[in-house]
Fold this sequence. Notes:
Layout: H1 2-9, H2 19-24, H3 27-32, E1 35-41, H4 48-81, E2 104-110, E3 115-122, E4 128-131, H5 135-139, E5 160-161, H6 167-172, E6 187-192, E7 198-211, E8 220-235, E9 244-247, H7 255-262, E10 266-270, E11 282-286, E12 300-305, E13 316-318, E14 320-325, E15 328-329, E16 345-347, E17 354-357, H8 358-371, E18 377-380, E19 383-388, E20 399-403, E21 407-409, E22 417-421, E23 424-427, E24 429-432, E25 438-440, H9 442-445, E26 448-453, E27 458-463
Parallel strand pairs: 3-9, 4-8, 16-25, 17-24
Antiparallel strand pairs: 1-2, 1-11, 2-3, 2-7, 4-9, 5-7, 6-7, 7-8, 10-11, 10-26, 12-13, 12-27, 13-16, 14-15, 14-20, 18-19, 19-23, 20-21, 22-23, 26-27
One 2-acetamido-2-deoxy-beta-D-glucopyranose binds at residues 378, 388, 390, 423-424.
Amino acid sequence: MARFAHLLVLVSFVLASGAAAAAAGGAHRRERSSARLHLERAAPGATMAERAADDRFRHAYINAKLAAASSSSARRRAAETSPAESSAFAMPLTSGAYTGTGQYFVRLRVGTPAQPFVLVADTGSDLTWVKCSSPSSSSSSPAASPPQRVFRPAGSKSWSPLPCDSDTCKSYVPFSLANCSSPPDPCSYDYRYKDNSSARGVVGLDSATVSLSGNDGTRKAKLQEVVLGCTTSYDGQSFKSSDGVLSLGNSNISFASRAASRFGGRFSYCLVDHLAPRNATSFLTFGNGDSSPGDDSSSRRTPLVLLEDARTRPFYFVSVDAVTVAGERLEILPDVWDFRKNGGAILDSGTSLTILATPAYDAVVKAISKQFAGVPRVNMDPFEYCYNWTGVSAEIPRMELRFAGAATLAPPGKSYVIDTAPGVKCIGVVEGAWPGVSVIGNILQQEHLWEFDLANRWLRFKQSRCAH
Ligand SMILES: *[C@@H]1O[C@H](CO)[C@@H](O)[C@H](O)[C@H]1NC(C)=O
Ligand SMILES: *[C@@H]1O[C@H](CO)[C@@H](O)[C@H](O)[C@H]1NC(C)=O
Ligand SMILES: *[C@@H]1O[C@H](CO)[C@@H](O)[C@H](O)[C@H]1NC(C)=O
Ligand SMILES: *[C@@H]1O[C@H](CO)[C@@H](O)[C@H](O)[C@H]1NC(C)=O
Ligand SMILES: *[C@@H]1O[C@H](CO)[C@@H](O)[C@H](O)[C@H]1NC(C)=O
């Protein structure tokens, strides 16, 4: 505990452009500074059927992880009353699905000297990790595969391995191997992903270098002692196109919490339309960006439901009060939006399509499809309601999600009645099992700036074109 709290305040700040920038600054500059990274769509051309298949893996992972967290916190409570059991609980070995279509990549440099990596930016993840050279890969035939970016801990002056008996390893590293037979052993993990991919490695601390925004990108900040997994072996399809994962989840060890502790306690992202040209940029900002929703009267805010007892970690739950379509409030069982009743809704960067638990799904598609009664239906995977929109002048009804705190999200019609093929539009939500969590996917989030104020536990959002 004490060790990790101590790490959080150890932040160093490197100004690449030196004295001129420092002279212009002082305390004021320090407060305003933010770091901005570009987000790239992992598979811009992916079909909706491919996205839906990946979203299903991811949804299974989210539900499994929530179930595991609540049963392990129940076990922990039980263990407090019967100490004999406390050393013996096994965490399930599952983690996020990164098959790639729904995700965004981000470039980050880690280590000293800094080495660049392409990582999946993931609000559903707590451990940041990169592929590492493994003893077996160095001896395998060099002709077998193209050169890969791998992190070499031995080549980084700032790398320090985390022992398996450290508080950080025991309390926060998800799915860490319970076996710590010799305390100086490294903290290790073994993830099994829902698509049968896996990743194994050891956890350490190292630095990460980010560019500061508001300049020409030459000023850089170095975050020290970021918790970093070094994946020494992996299998499966999940990690073909990326070098690892950048964790943006609600967790003490996530990159988001580490970077937010340096940059104003918050991070934000803005996603351009999923059909926008490839060069249109989405971005991820740590700190108060120039366009921070916090500074703007047009922004809305709702509490982030972050429970103390880890049951919601690493996900970001929000409280949905109501859904309206064409001004009518839909009749939806309130339990669907209640985390404590095995429902609840999360905002997720790594899910494409919005997944609604059956009672909400039924109400939403019924209300929207009613407005399209005269439009010819067509079949198109993965959606239930698709329409031949050729020559159709039907209007897309306004759908609103009302969050606690009178914060209303009114996404553009194209975010939930989606262009699926030339001349075809579909009601772009998919059904999730009830009971189960609902997920606000990244297509419904597009063209909004979302700010996760971790210090004050607010989610703020406002419409935006995401053009800086
Ligand atoms: C971990 O995070 C929780 C809040 O999410 C905080 O109360 C706690 O102090 C943190 N622990 C450490 C060791 O930083
Ligand atoms: C723990 O690890 C040691 C050394 O790797 C091994 O000999 C032992 O069997 C393991 N114990 C368990 C319970 O897995
Ligand atoms: C993963 O492996 C299990 C057992 O071998 C198999 O039943 C399942 O279909 C596999 N899943 C995928 C997505 O390949
Ligand atoms: C993206 O590329 C197109 C041409 O391919 C160009 O017309 C457009 O200006 C570019 N947009 C940006 C934001 O660079
Ligand atoms: C939509 O309808 C038009 C005729 O109005 C037809 O030519 C076209 O093939 C249809 N498209 C689909 C996808 O069914």
